[in-house]
Amino acid sequence: MTTATIENQYQFTTEITAKGKQQNSDGWAMTVGWKLPGSRYHLVLYGQDWETVEGFEVGHTATITIQQGNLKNNKEGKYSSDFFWDMESIEAGGEIVASEEVQAPPKPKPTPSEPRTGSPDQPPPNPAALGACHNHAVDFIVRGILPLPEGRELVGWVRELRDRFYRDINQAPLMPLHYCYQHNEERRQGKNGGWGHQMEPKDGSVEKQAGEPYAYCIEGREGWRVFDGGH
Ligand SMILES: [Zn+2]
Fold first, then answer.
1. Domains of the chain, start order
2. Alpha carbon of 199 to ligand 1 centroid (Å)
3. pLDDT for residue 136
4. Of the candidates 82, 80, 25, 32, which has an alpha carbon nearest to the alpha carbon of residue 53?
5. Is the N or the C terminus of the chain less surrounded, counting Cβ atoms within 10 Å?
């Protein structure tokens, strides 16, 4: 294992994710959305003087400078997280640079012109597919297959169905051949050439009782419980 050179000072802009009183003293503790290089955990800063962090609340963005402090108990000082880090300064605002980007090549950022999708991780919706899902939603309502539930207004119901069709059907990954959609399980081919997946014991317990036969859901015979005592 190589020992990385540890910088003794860092400055970063981050979001304050937690702030509160220290467990064993009257001082403050503050967790920020930034990690020391090589650390898996968000940095926690500690201090005694509450005035230092006055006005900095959860959700605020701050530019923080930290200085390497004492070595933690039972640590060798190989890693930056082996040390306490003293907060040299904290200022409101600044532009957040994701901590991963400090250590890894930057990820492509979505351009602001992309349509909103509800989550930053989702690709923009396909308008044609969305339109088709909307048509199916209306069709199912009109035909009485998915009627408007009591107490719901129509537009919201159409949108809900459209979104569900889009996310759960249109954009759902393709399942392998012989997949069981009823139980959401992949089937395996048995010695006799049929495709099936094992079902949970009748009583719902995960453990199979000694001597209890296995139950299988067999493709083309849905709803059957086929018992195989050969195990
Ligand atoms: Zn099944």
1. 9-103 (2.40.50), 112-172 (no CATH), 188-228 (no CATH)
2. 7
3. 95
4. 32
5. N
φ and ψ of 45, to 5 deg: -110, 145
- Structure confidence by residue, pLDDT tens digits, 100-142: 444 444 555 555 554 555 555 667 889 999 999 999 999 999 9
Q: What is the pLDDT of residues 50-62, one digit of tens each?
A: 888 888 888 888 8
Distance 215 CA to ligand 1 centre (A): 10
Task: Residue count of the chain, please give it.
Answer: 231
Tell me, what's the pLDDT at 201?
A: 62
- Separation of CA 142 and ligand 1 centre (Å): 31
Q: Ion ligand 1 — residues with CB under 5 Å?
A: 180, 182-183, 217
Q: How many whole angstroms from 217 Cα to the centroid of ligand 1? A: 5
> Using N-to-C axis directions, what is the helix angle for 127-142 and 154-164, rounded to 10°?
120
Average pLDDT, the chain: 79
Whether the pLDDT of residue 4 is over 60: the answer is: no
Q: Of 81, 91, 89, 93, nearest to 37 (Cα)? A: 81
